[in-house]
Amino acid sequence: xxxxxxxxxxxxxxxxxxxxxxxxxxxxxxxxxxxxxxxxxxxxxxxxxxxxxxxxxxxxxxxxxxxxxxxxxxxxxxxxxxxxxxxxxxxxxxxxxxxxxxxxxxxxxxxxxxxxxxxxxxxxxxxxxxxxxxxxxxxxxxxxxxxxxxxxxxxxxxxxxxxxxxxxxxxxxxxxxxxxxxxxxxxxxxxxxxxxxxxxxxxxxxxxxxxxxxxxxxxxxxxxxxxxxxxxxxxxxxxxxxxxxxxxxxxxxxxxxxxxxxxxxxxxxxxxxxxxxxxxxxxxxxxxxxxxxxxxxxxxxxxxxxxxxxxxxxxxxxxxxxxxxxxxxxxxxxxxxxxxxxxxxxxxxxxxxxxxxxxxxxxxxxxxxxxxxxxxxxxxxxxxxxxxxxxxxxxxxxxxxxxxxxxxxxxxxxxxxxxxxxxxxxxxxxxxxxxxxxxxxxxxxxxxxxxxxxxxxxxxxxxxxxxx
Length: 468
What we know:
By secondary structure, this protein is mainly beta. The chain has two domains: 21-57; 58-79 and 111-465, Neuraminidase (6 Propeller). It contains four helices and 29 strands. The strands form seven sheets. Strands 25-29-28-27-26 form a five-stranded mixed beta sheet, with no helix packed on it. A four-stranded antiparallel beta sheet has the order 1-2-3-4. The protein has a four-stranded antiparallel beta sheet with strand order 5-6-7-8, with no helix packed on it. β1 and β2 form a beta hairpin. The longest helix is centred in the N-terminal third of the chain and has 31 residues, at 25-55.
């Protein structure tokens, strides 16, 4: 017989239709969920703003001089506009979903007062960094009131500038300090001369690279590889590259801090004298280096391999050697394939040894075949002491001198003066073309607190103050 069932079990087994929620319940649930989601987003935005505000309090320091290679400009153009730095996040006009009021837009850190550019580097036409001294010595820092080295950055071709962090290093003083800046792309950069520092996050943080007592006197970067000349020097003060011996060529991947020695012929690059300048040029057809003894070396760029003598007797054809200090001798490579002009391809050297010529008309030598053969093409016409030589993608040679800036469209045979607004005392110490139309020049007197720009291929130049 069947087991007796409890009436309660029978009731529990019955189907009970679910009750419908009161009208509007589901809408209220959706609105509450939306408010919770917006609240979390607002909290996250507030946290990000707090991080940005904290970053903006980092003391700003640093700057240096350099021309980005044509390939860097092409890479930047292919990559699109420069991405803003951490302090540039946020969108103007954005409103807060929780309050309906405009969200705060973080401001860029200002350029330190009295900023005096000494070196500049550009990646493409828009984004550049400049290194120099700022503020009042003894009242800078932290961490030290005597360290006033600072860096400023532009993302609109020099129209506006803002401060960014810099290495804790003063101006060059014997084996200490820095004087130059280079960037290979928007992330990887170096400050050097004589110390060596590297950044791999666009300049937000810097790392000191050990050089085992050697001084870094020149550095260039192309195709994601940096090359630098290291030397043992005993020069003091600002003459950190004087009385140097044991020059070596080293290279590192752009995103690495490991520097390897590059094999060169013989026992190395030679020795220097009273002052040492070792021009280093990286072009599309390879790298070129003029040793202190006047020998021209060439080698692969961006790939492992030894460098060798270029093959031509540069010392015999052009009886000059770098010597001097800073940029007192020039070696220039105008990149292949960027122009169809008469000076589109080749190497140019200007001799600047004291006493070589009378009247200050230094001779110009040109090689159309990568240094295998050389021939004199002209002279600088005696219009000031040459300080820096650059090439343009248009094929024009651009020369900075103690009296201004001069141009040559025929490999140095003839020169014409550029129109310079507000010519600084002592002329210019550096010039470089970032594109066929845009170029930059650093005054010999950094107290001018400005960088000169050209936007017409070097025919005219005007100062731009580096300030916020």
